[in-house]
Amino acid sequence: MITLTSLKIAYIGGGSRDWARKLMIDLALCPDLWGEATLYDIDSDSENLNKRLGKWLQDQPGAVSKWHCATIATLKETLQRADFASFSSQAGSLALMAEETAPQKTLDLLAGVTQLTLEPSGETSIDISKALLGLDDLLTNVNTENIGQISNMPLHNGIETNVCFNCDEVQPLSAGALPDGTAPIVNQHGANQELVVEAALTENNDLAFQAFFNDLGHHLCLDAAWEFFKKLLQLNAAHLPATAVT
């Protein structure tokens, strides 16, 4: 077992949904962990609201651990010296995030409009942290690298399978082969995801369009698909490199 000292947990995103609130409640209910939770979100209003929530939770009946919550100006600073990092993201603009109900739920809690119920969220992030620290063993399903646990998928693809967590160890468990009828579909999606990542890292529109056109979810002809793809780039121009929209 690892000798526990104060921990730093970096939490990235999650401001417009319930994820940050669930994490803070789970931390407040965990007597085995304590330390600092640093928050970073491109939605600064939600980020600051979650900091207020974290501080407020520490004073509520039923909270059994002590956490200092802070917002950090940059992603790099948030991750510095972090023992654990948790990421939550949602595709969409800040305008779309503003329509989510989580900030209103949080404001209602802080204002006493709704009653706080301190109960576990059912998410596994805290349980995973405890297992990696040697406090418990955990078997759960997570996104991880394929090192052979699915035998008819490419190695190193990102997949979701059962994993055993224990002290400083993550051991994926064999799941066997995908059924013959399913494997081609899953592998095509996997290839598309690889193209999307490469396109984003290299700012390559041609690769991005290849992934878009190869997606099983659309049935447009080539010319119509290209026009639709360009429209998507224009609509999301504020969040893309300038070269992506030319």
Strand content bin: 15-25%
Number of helices: 9
Biggest sheet architecture: 4 strands, parallel
Give me the CATH fold name of the largest domain: Rossmann fold
Question: Which outline best applies?
Answer: globular
List its traits:
246 residues, Rossmann fold, 3 domains, three-stranded antiparallel beta sheet, 39% helix
Report on the structure:
The radius of gyration is 21 Å and the shape is globular. It has a four-stranded parallel sheet. Strands 5-6-7 form a three-stranded antiparallel sheet, covered by helices on one side. The model has no long low-confidence stretch (mean pLDDT 88). The chain has helices at 19-28, 44-57, 75-79, 94-98, 102-111, 125-132, 183-202, 205-214, 222-235; strands at residues 7-13, 35-40, 67-71, 84-88, 138-145, 158-166, 169-172. Helix content is 39%, strand content 18%. A hairpin with a 2-residue loop joins strand 6 (158-166) and strand 7 (169-172). It folds into three domains: 7-123, Rossmann fold (3-Layer(aba) Sandwich), CATH 3.40.50; 137-172, no CATH class; 183-245, no CATH class. With 246 residues, the protein is an alpha/beta fold.
